[in-house]
Amino acid sequence: MDAAYVRTEFHNGITTIEFFHPQSNSLPGKILDQLAQAIHGAGNDPDCRVILIKSGGERAFCAGASFDELSAIENEEKGLQFFSGFANVINSIRVVPKFVVGRIQGKCVGGGVGIAAAVDYAIATEEAEVRLSELAVGIGPFVIGPAVERKIGLSAFSQLSIDATLPRKAEWARNKGLFAEMHPTVESMDESIQRLLQTLSQSNPQAMAELKKVFWKGTEHWDELLKERAAISGRLVLSEFTRQAIASFRKK
């Protein structure tokens, strides 16, 4: 964990939040907590007009939950606490009165798909394959499910959830609405992101806040819903089936 971080940078109305973990940007509880806090902090900053979420490195946007922490969960309380970290990140993105843009530069797995679905506008490269791997390790995409289903619909969400070992190409994710844009290179992706951020940083913050309310209407119950979903995952991760599946994945 020494190399892992969440960093926040502010410049001309734009708050950039970057997270990194040496294991393909996987998400342990500490990183999840710091991400949620950083998003809330940017949302409460009156000088911030727009938020960018990105990850470090070049190959993977996010590998999802940390297998090390999943295998260390000892009881339902610890399971609820860990999976609530994903709920807190998603709800932070949902409630902040700023648009949140996502930079998806590479493979996107599990909780990473949840973040890509939760942001208000995701811009990706052609390398940004997506996969919901949870069922393959004995759980399911319960916490992130509402965010993913909201963005791509029940049919596409069920396809990702059921065939948990098959990556879908970025073009599939773009066609389903998960990605607003898809670019052939990192350079062209970053150019588009900067253009959008500059435009939004000069837009009316009150108008953007009201639009955000419109876009997220009907999700007011997610504080309770995602906690309930976290409890389901917290129970399942304790099963012998799941423990063996996680151990097998860690050996690969």
Can you walk through the features of this model?
With 252 residues, the protein is of the alpha/beta class. The protein has one domain (5-187): Alpha-Beta Complex (2-enoyl-CoA Hydratase, Chain A, domain 1), CATH 3.90.226.10. The protein has eleven helices and nine strands. The strands form two sheets. Strands 1-2-3-5-7-9 form a six-stranded mixed β-sheet, with helices on both faces. A hairpin with a 2-residue loop joins β1 and β2. α1 runs parallel beside α3 (76-95), α3 (76-95) runs antiparallel to α10 and α5 crosses α6. It is globular. It starts with a strand and ends with a helix.
Task: List its traits.
single chain; 252 residues; alpha/beta; 2-enoyl-CoA Hydratase, Chain A, domain 1; six-stranded mixed sheet; 11 helices; 17% strand
Per-chain topology:
Blueprint: E1 5-11, E2 14-20, H1 29-43, E3 50-55, E4 60-62, H2 67-72, H3 76-95, E5 99-104, E6 107-109, H4 111-118, E7 121-125, E8 130-131, H5 145-152, H6 154-162, H7 170-176, E9 181-183, H8 186-201, H9 205-215, H10 222-236, H11 240-251
Parallel strand pairs: 2-3, 3-5, 4-6, 5-7, 6-8, 7-9
Antiparallel strand pairs: 1-2
